[in-house]
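Appendix B, example 12.
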Amino acid sequence: MRRRLFGSVRARATLGATLVVAVALLAAGASVLLALRSNLTDQASSEAESSARKVAVSIATGTAPAALELPDGDDTPVQVVDGDGRLLAAGEDLERISGTGSSAVKPVTPPVDDDGGDDGGGDDDGGSDRHGGKGKGKGKGGDDDSYAYGEIADDAEGGKGSATVDGETRDYRFAALEVKNTRQGDLTVYAGASLSAEQSAVGTALTVMLIGFPVLLGVVGAVTWLVTRRALRPVEGIRSEMSAITASQDLARRVPEPATHDEVARLARTTNETLAALETSVERQRRFVADASHELRSPIASLRTQLEVGAAHPELLDVDGAVADTVRLQELAAGLLLLARLDAGERPGEARVDLATLAGEELSQRPAGRVAVRTHLEPVEVAGSRSQLARVVGNLLDNAQRHARSRVDIAVRAEGPWAVVEVGDDGAGVPEAERERIFERFVRLDDARARDDGGAGLGLAIARDVAVRHGGALTVRSSPAGGALFELRLPVAPVA
């Protein structure tokens, strides 16, 4: 069942589309979550740094840590830590903290400055110290500003931690901002911004994705399944019709062609063209077999009759007639065998053949006949099968001698890249309407149907098939003498 399901193009297309969309959604979802988290984390870092800078400004302008007004609420836990790691100030209700410079939550009392006194600072006379000068104030009235005022660092360092404020524990983004040269030495302000908004937004987005992605994948799978089903419906029609054609062996049937212009429609048209070519080929083969049987029946019947008569009456045996029928039967069988080999796609070979020499050999094998033969033979070589080309030239000579009144002309020459063999006669010629038909198998014109004229209508068909398979052509037209002129063109063999 599983093999049948995933053996379907529709199922594979649906699965593939769903997987591609799933990978794309996962990549997009991960990118969105990372971008959202980074954005919100940066925002929390900015808020934490802003809170830390406000506290740092107060310290830098002379406010003692114990007198700082720290932010209220759970969203901004604050610590002020000195260089020795002692907690000098912390937000109210802070119960636990991690991720900062100190885990303490209760401030300690800083030591009193010997030069400036406690936070009240100065003598009762309103400003003279024991050396006669004005006291070093912690506020704006002091003469030594580098002692009263601190220097705030340009950049804050970030970190992540957690804090418990008023019994509630949260994750925070902390900013650490250093303030140097204060009355308490170098101090560090830690301020946090809650990550609850970031966690809530990321959690909501993740929930939406976990719910929405499966629904979206289901929609994609269903739509792909329906669209693929509709697109492949004509293919199923083609398949079922081809199955019916195979079962019925009726090659006249055709598959349905969709009214579209897509690949399926082109497939249907190509299939119908293939069926038409196959039907033509099968019909041609059937006619060939029928015609071959008919042609073979006559010489076989004649030969049998003569042998039966000879067996019963030896003195009446026509030996010459029996030999003639046997030769005719042998030639017909050889022609049928050659056609069968050509139909099977036999390659012609690559032997170099001189057509002038070949034509001379074919002429020398024929006894002087009732017609004269005039020749004009120029050496020209072609590549192919010597026996098949000899059969072509011999068939053309036989045809010309059979229909000539008094003369046959044969010429061999080269015309550019072509080797040309022309065989003409001064007979009745071939009507223009019949000039293609005579190259069909077992076709003889009405004036050549008498058995005494010889031939079974295969010579010219064999000659054209051989010419085509050698990369050439065989045509017929009227000769200057008034008869038929057959022209054979073959590619000249390349220089060795």
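The longest helix spans residues 196-248. The chain has three domains: 1-123+135-250, 255-345, 347-491.
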